[in-house]
Specification:
heterodimer; A: mainly alpha; globular; B: alpha+beta; Alpha-Beta Plaits; 5 strands; elongated
């Protein structure tokens, strides 16, 4: 899709994306503290501004003016760029998220912005590899944590960094598989196509939103779990784990650079919420309540914001409801549940897609059937393989236990 | 069926599924605990604006009480200082004179200091006080920028002068003219909360031992305050 829009349109989109996510993140930091507080039967920050909304601002000012300590012995260059990587990557990954409906989504381009004869949606860049871009940025974000932990030349940050490397790389696979089933289903990596199919396609019935979360429910569930792990949020906040690792990878950081880590962490909550909304809940798609074409974009922006807020609230609820999971269980969940489930679901999705529109003739049934057969075989064989591997170790887990007791 | 009804039904079904999950599954019930907490009033108090009410017998900072006519209850006996386990109280007694009477008895506290950087708020001093001159208020905001300011002297410890009362010193003649029975007579000036500015609620007052009045306050209306002239004193003397 080559666009021939004037420069100011691009500027407006960039500014809008910046404003939305920076403002959203600032409000999220305050909102999260307030919401967690109410979930814990207290009030939370309520001093600065109306309902304490300006708390993030004054916290930012505080961090700005605090001494920015660089401990002796650190790798100064890497120590300096690690927090920047997190923030920059965060901002880059929001480039593919559409905030309002895009042209062509509704009749008369309703939901898109009509200004000065131009029609456009608030999406910075509609890359043809949109979802891959998001995954790539997520991968680079790991470097922020790892480099911070490594360059600090200190034990706790190093442990935090190592933990988060393992965690993020593990869950990236599951996340990638969930995303894979989405683009197999849609047939495109382009975010606008994914949003479009959810806005215009007919789902279960006429009037029911064609959210991809309905046909791809397992992929959605896998993505939910892995996005929490990717964002490093409770109950998967092993990288910080203040009870065990002081502050994890950012133990040695202070002042503005610490603030950048905080910003990156909270921004990843907004980003993950935006991505999941875009992929599984139609992004800005929603009823426009018969608003005139010029103003309908407010409704679509409102839908997007409301959906994002729902998932932000979900993140906050997770933090209030769940204790931190043990590290080995985190790894077990990632490798033994999430990745196999993701693989199986990708295969099932592929089979369904092939069966649905794999061309005429019986070939598509063969291909689809093969997919299902593979899934079935895996389902039957994997318990046997587990048994065999246990036998290879000489004993079943129960016998292991008795052995230990004897010794 | 119109489209919007289908849409509405869809959202209703969605909410129903979420609610069913929250109520019906173990995991969901766990998640609904913080959600339920959100709907309840918070357990905390907004401290500077509306602090948590203290217990009726709360041990706050001290107050040196006054009789209704303005005389000090403290007789400078130093029992409080002796009782103090933290050695926080210093009392310097002095004799009342005919022209300068501060308290009904022989002596009064010329200097009375409580050092709040030492005080442990145990209340032994108020137990020791024979005239209920020393009681404790509900005030607990005692932080100061320097230690010297934590040494409270009489000017900060004395209760607020009662309505219509005269500041000490009184002359002996005035005091005699009033003819009040200070010991066992109507006790006066119940210790107020918050440094004498807030009046205790009725329920709190019930517990105030400093308020154990003997006799009725209104049976002995105070004579009009005078400037200590001889006529007034003579008049009062005639009544007696």
């Amino acid at each position: 899709m080559t666009e021939t829009l004037p420069l100011w349109v691009h500027l407006v989109r960039v500014l809008a994306a910046f404003a939305f996510f920076l403002l959203g993140t600032a409000l999220l930091i305050w909102g999260e503290r307030r919401m967690v507080a109410f979930m814990q039967s207290r009030l939370g920050p309520n001093r600065v501004g109306p309902f304490g909304m300006m708390q993030t601002l004054v916290d930012g000012i505080k961090m700005f003016f605090k001494e920015d300590v660089t401990p002796g012995g650190v790798d100064k260059f890497i120590f300096g760029i690690a927090p920047m990587v997190g923030v920059i990557v965060g901002f880059l990954s929001i480039a593919v998220v559409p905030l309002t409906a895009l042209p062509g989504m509704y009749p008369n381009d309703a939901g898109a912005i009509h200004v000065g004869g131009e029609v456009f949606g608030l999406q910075v860049a509609d890359l043809n590899v949109g979802l891959l871009w998001f995954l790539a940025m997520g991968s680079i974000h790991v470097y922020s944590v790892v480099l911070a932990g490594w360059s600090s030349k200190s034990i706790y940050p190093l442990l935090g960094g190592v933990r988060s490397t393992a965690q993020m790389i593990s869950y990236e696979i599951a996340q990638g598989l969930a995303v894979a089933s989405v683009f197999i289903y849609v047939g495109s990596l382009r975010v606008s196509d994914i949003v479009m199919i959810q806005a215009t396609g007919v789902g279960l019935a006429d009037g029911v939103p064609n959210w991809l979360a309905i046909p791809l429910l397992p992929a959605f569930l896998i993505f939910v779990v892995s996005m929490v792990a990717e964002a490093g949020r409770p109950p998967f906040d092993m990288a910080e784990a203040e009870g065990e690792l002081v502050g994890g990878f950012h133990t040695e950081y202070s002042g503005l650079r610490f603030g950048m880590f905080m910003l990156a962490e909270f921004m990843s909550v907004t980003i993950m919420s935006s991505i999941i909304v875009t992929m599984f809940f139609g992004g800005p798609a929603g009823p426009t309540f018969g608003l005139p074409v010029g103003i309908a974009w407010v409704a679509s922006l409102g839908w997007f914001t409301a959906k994002v807020f729902f998932f932000v609230f979900f993140f906050v609820l997770l933090r209030a409801a769940l204790p931190r999971i043990r590290y080995d269980r985190l790894m077990n969940l990632g490798w033994k549940v999430m990745i196999p489930a993701g693989l199986v679901w990708v295969l099932i999705t592929a089979s369904m897609v092939v069966a649905n529109d794999g061309g005429s003739g019986n070939g598509r049934w063969v291909v689809a059937g093969a997919g299902f057969v593979v899934v079935l075989i895996a389902w039957v064989v994997s318990p046997i393989l587990t048994q065999v591997s246990d036998l290879g170790h000489g004993a079943s887990p129960d016998e292991h236990r008795t052995e230990e007791v004897v010794h | 069926m119109p489209t919007w009804i289908v849409t509405l039904l869809f959202y209703v079904a969605l909410v129903a599924v979420v609610v069913a999950w929250l109520r019906g599954t173990v995991l969901g019930r766990g998640f609904s605990v913080p959600l339920r907490t959100m709907t309840r009033p918070v357990e905390t108090f907004e401290y500077p604006e509306s602090p948590k009410p203290v217990a009726p017998r709360f041990h706050g900072r001290h107050q040196l009480n006054l009789y209704e006519d303005g005389l000090e209850k403290c007789i400078g006996c130093e029992l409080c200082a002796w009782a103090c386990p933290a050695d926080a109280i210093y009392v310097q007694g002095a004799e009342n004179t005919l022209l300068e009477r501060f308290s009904p008895g022989e002596r009064y506290a010329e200097d009375y200091q409580i050092n709040y950087s030492r005080c442990i708020f145990c209340g032994l001093c108020i137990e020791a006080c024979p005239t209920r001159a020393l009681t404790m208020t509900h005030e607990y905001e005692l932080s100061e920028p320097d230690r010297q300011a934590l040494v409270y002297t009489k000017d900060r410890l004395l209760a607020v002068l009662p309505e219509g009362a005269m500041a000490t010193p009184h002359t002996d003649a005035e005091v005699r003219a009033r003819g009040l029975n200070y010991y066992g007579g109507p006790a006066v000036t119940p210790p107020a909360t918050k440094g004498g500015t807030t009046v205790l609620s009725a329920s709190n007052r019930k517990f105030q031992r400093a308020n154990q009045v003997l006799g009725e306050l209104h049976d002995h209306p105070l004579p009009a305050m005078t400037d200590g002239s001889d006529e007034a004193a003579a008049q009062a003397g005639d009544v007696n």
